[in-house]
Amino acid sequence: MDKSTLLALLGSVERGEITPAAVADRLANLPYEDIGHARIDHHRSLRTGLPEVIYAAGKKPAQLAEIFSRMAAAGSDVLATRVSAEAVAAVQEAVAHTTHYDVARIVALRQTATANVVESPCIAVLCAGTSDLPIAEEAAVTAEHFGVQVIRLYDVGVAGVHRLLAVRDQLAQADAVIVCAGMEGALPSVVGGLVGVPVIAVPTSVGYGASFGGVTALLGMLNSCSPNVSVVNIDNGFGAAYSATLIARSARR
Questions:
Q1: Residues 107 and 100: beta-carbon distance below 8 Å
Q2: How many angstroms separate the first and last alpha carbons of the chain?
Q3: Which of 28, 51, 121, 248 has the smallest count of CB within 10 Å of its CB?
Q4: With contact defined as beta carbons under 8 Å apart, do 76 and 101 qualify?
C-alpha cells in the first residue's frame, strides 16, 4: 500500500465504485500483518515512499516464500535480497511471474506500473573491478526496482583510471552516484572529485589478506578527501541503492 494506491481507493469510494467495507478489508493489514515468524510492514510505502524489502539470508526457503506471497497478494512490488538457489525455487513455486537476478542474488516481482524512464531520477552505479559485480548489481537492480534509471559503469578502477575518464559524460547525467570497490577502496575519492552530486561508497570484501574482508576499503573510504563521499557498510549494495534513490528523487522535485 502506497500513497497513490490509497488515494485511488478513496477516490473509488467517493465515486461509488467500491464500498467502504471493501476498502476496510484492503486496509485490514495496516500497519503490519503478523504471520507468526514475521510481521510484514505493508504500511512502509505510506511512511517512507519506498516499500519493505525482504532480506532473505537466514530465512528458511518456506518462510521466504510465505512472506513474498503475502506481500505479492497485497498488490505491491516485491523484492528479496541475498537469496539462495533453494530460496529462489521456493519463491518461484509460490508466486508466478517473478524474476531472478542471479548475479545480484535478488528475486523480484513487478506489479505496479513503471514510470517514464526518461523522466525518472537517475543514478550511476560504478564498480572498480568485475569481482565487485555482485554488490554493484545488487545496488543497480534494487534502484531499478524502486523506479530509478540506472547507468552501469563497470570495471573502471583506479589501476586504469583512463577507463573512468572515458565515461565522464555518462557519469555527469546522474543525480547520485554509487561506487563499489574493494582492495584499497580508492575509487570513490576519484569519482567524488569528478562530480557535483552525492557519492555513496560501498566497500566490498574483495581483496587479498590485508584487505581484511573489506575493512581496509571501508577505512579508506571513511577517510576520503572528497567531501561529497559518504559510506555504507561492507558489501551493502542494497543500502546504497536505497539512499541513492531517495537522494535522486529529491533532486528531481
A1: yes
A2: 22
A3: 28
A4: no
**CA–CA gap between residue 222 and residue 194 (Å, rounded):** 18
- Torsion angle of C-alpha atoms 122, 124, 125, 130, degrees rounded to 10: 140
* Neighbouring residues of 243: CB distance < 8 A, sequence distance ≥ 6: 200, 232
Tens of pLDDT along 113-161? 765 555 789 999 999 999 999 999 999 999 999 999 999 999 999 999 9
Instruction: Give the number of other CB atoms < 10 A from CB of residue 252.
Output: 11
Rounded to two decimals, what is the model's pTM?
Answer: 0.84
Quote the longest CA-to-CA distance of the chain: 67
- Set of cell numbers at residue 218: 571501508
Q: How far is the C-alpha of 252 from the C-alpha of 158, rounded, in Å?
A: 31
Torsion, Cα 33 34 35 41, to 10 degrees, reads: 50
Per-residue model confidence as pLDDT tens digits over 202-219 = 999 999 999 999 999 999
Q: Which domains does the chain have, with CATH numbers?
A: 30-109 (no CATH), 117-251 (3.40.50.1970)
